[in-house]
Amino acid sequence: MDTPASGPRHTVTLDPQQWTFAAGEDESLFLAARRAGVRLPAICRNGTCRTCFSRMESGSVRYLVDWPGLSAQEKQEGFILPCVAVATSAIVMVNPHAEKTGGGAG
Fold first, then answer.
1. Sequence ranges of the domains in the chain
2. Which CATH code is given to the segment(s) 12-96?
3. What confidence tier does 27 reach under pLDDT thresholds 50, 70, 90?
4. Rounded distance, CA 64 to CA 47, Å?
5. What is the pLDDT of residues 42-73, one digit of tens each?
6. Are strands 79-80 and 61-63 parallel, antiparallel or unpaired?
7. Cα separations (Å) of 48 from 83, 93, 98?
């Protein structure tokens, strides 16, 4: 099982499912979701394949890589790549392809 993040934690709400989980500022949204029993679609986990492409309705993130696979327009429109995005506030994220795998998602 993944080790829980240390440091500041933020609530992530996943729509349309209305699931919530905590994400630390030292882990990707993908890893935080997995730790909480939520599977987000992902292949590369380095920001290039765009399989995890999601929309952020509110909140803010920073990226673990310098050039995540998003255009400036996509970023402006609120799209994120959870495999390399780290929550810096509470966020609401939309990914209709997420699935529960067990664990702690509420």
1. 12-96
2. 3.10.20.30
3. very high
4. 9
5. 998 888 899 999 999 999 999 999 888 999 99
6. unpaired
7. 10, 19, 19
